[in-house]
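Entry 12.
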Amino acid sequence: MPSLLANWTSEDFETLEKGVLVANHRLAETDLFTDDALAAIFDSHPAEHLGINTAGKSKEKFDWRAGNRNGVPGDELVQMIREGHLWINCRRMLDYQPEHAEVIHSLFEELEAGATHFTAEDRTANLLISSPAVWVPYHVDMPVNMLWHIRGQKRAWVYPHFDKRFASSAVLEKVCSGEWSEDVPYDPSWDKYALVYDVEPGQLLTWPQLAPHRVENTAGLCVSLSTEHKNPRARRRLNVHTGNYTMRERFGWPCQSIAVDGFAAHAKQFLSRVDRYVGKLFGKEKEQWTYPITFVLDPSEPDGFRLIEGVEEAVLAVHEQAEELVGAV
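Predicted 3D structure (tokens):
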């Protein structure tokens, strides 16, 4: 397969996982992301791995929602995304879309060949298709995340990584332990510290693991491939936060260190693994937090969806909790 990386330098490869990187790719040349290709993915992808979402139009209020496809066919869904206010996540592309999987593994192999420090284990990939004005709230990704932008235009804000001002130890502990979703408390005053990127088709944007970021679509139907991976260091970083959470919640020992090297880091990793094993053994394994279903797709509505009656109280509670957490952690 021809190279899918365009004009990468040795510095680009060296920056992987260590800093914020903008580089070029040729994914659009594969014809795997045209309107027809997207419709085919929608119609063949397992329903349980096709996330239907929207966000409120006011960025002053957290209003992220999950919805139900409601039987809308793939070609119609593509048009609804283009004209509406929707954000679709096709999860586990490596498992259910073999042509895309071949291309994605090729990307990972090129990265591993070009960067001696880079190892991509536990590979996953999600395809994100979203409306022109949709935005994704401030959040962190637990695996190492890489955003391969293919169609439309986006603006991304990436905040200083490993800086507790923007994602405190308590916040990351709750995310990594599954207590919270990856959406975390946000204060607009933090924007002055962010790196801001206008991401064009054919560009990759990636950042260090757990770096807070948010994204807004600025033009056109947006299509991005989001790849994720782990390696021993990435797993240990997550286990350090989970170990800190276990010590805080189980034993009342607050631990602020997030270092991933040294004896303490390995001890926390051991503790978090033992805690998960005990949870599984006694049937008390914590389920990952998910959003309640609060809307259904509806082609007759201007934004492509309608809210479900009787569930608003549940979703308001989630949003109010998120807003209150900004000053609480």
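Annotation: Residues 325-329 have pLDDT under 50 and may be disordered. The chain has two domains: 5-159+194-230+292-323, 169-184+232-289.
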